[in-house]
Amino acid sequence: MSLLEADSDRLLAALRGLLAEKGIASAEEIAATVSATDAATPAQGARMVAKAWTDAAFRTFMLADGTRAATSLGIPMRGLPPLGVLENTPRMHHLVVCTLCSCYPRAVLGYPPFWYKSAAYRARAVRDPRGLLAEWGTTLPAGVQLTVVDSTASYRWMVLPLRPAATAGWSEAELAGVVRPGDMIGVTVPTV
Amino acid sequence: MSQELPRDTRPRAHHDLGGAPKYMCMPVDTEPHVLSAFDKDVDAIRQILGDKEIMSTDELRRGIEAIPETDYHRLTYYQRWLRSITDTLLRKGVLTEAELRAALGA
Amino acid sequence: MTLAPGMRVRVRDDWPETRGTCHIRTPHYLRGERGVVLAWLGEFPNPEDAAFARPAAETPLYHVRFDQPSLWGQGTPGDAVVAEIFGHWLEEADT
Fold first, then answer.
1. pLDDT-derived band of residue B9, with 50, 70 and 90 as boundaries?
2. ipTM of this complex > 0.95?
3. Range of the domain at A29
4. Is residue C24 less than 8 Å (CB to CB) from chain B?
């Protein structure tokens, strides 16, 4: 259909105009949505991780029901896909991918990174996960098994990484500060 | 480099990329890429359409998967979204071709 | 058929893509493969219908674990792939 092949910028402008005319999406609504989406950053996920590291009851809660755990910290989850949390242990490391498209735990991590959406990541994650981790300089210690979680359907997944050694006595805020987005997808591990 | 398996010759859809041999030796661009205003606007429109139950995530995915393979890989991520959104809204009669043609011509 | 955690299952070796336009959330690389159910994740509208704005039945979704090296003939022993698979794509496996 040739209309679909129109220049993207022109197509967006045309769509914006039509959606506004039809009362479906005004310029103000679009701007407000952009602002709200910008507010969902990986800091939200990092807060959850830091709390799980310091509060055993929250950790259990987060692993059992990621959606309710996020909500309890004031992270908006209503109408959004359920959040699953994958617990890394000294013997098990998790890596999240969506081989079919780009499903990502946006509510707690914000927009997915460019690399997460790339064909190379989506193809390699399930077939050569350890080679893929090497792109980030990540090598798992001997004896650690790797589970790749392909976000194929209705859930969105985040990793609860291992708390780094040498952080005894740190506050939640300090701990949240060392948790990067890649740590919550599994391409890297938190370090201090 | 991975050896080719019988699986690699099965009729996988072009968006179904898990283990696809063509990408197994492709490096990953791990650098952060800033989202443009175009990207954010398309993302916002999709959210609004979802919130108002005009178009679902499932419909968005289908529309992206319907993009011919060459275009699928040539378009940027959000250009694919825009094409899917437009395709789906046309199919559902939320927009008409005549309206869209007129809006593009304007 | 409700699948319980621990149950061995096989993903149907079916290829609807060869029969016409469809929207399938069972990745190609798992079709025909054997795995173990980890958990029931709930019920969700069947995306195969929802994608075409058809009435979509609430369908059970399972988290299923597959041995990763077995999928590709290479890899690290003990590594796994876990995916969300809808119940109608799964059959109980004998072994």
1. confident
2. yes
3. 9-38
4. yes
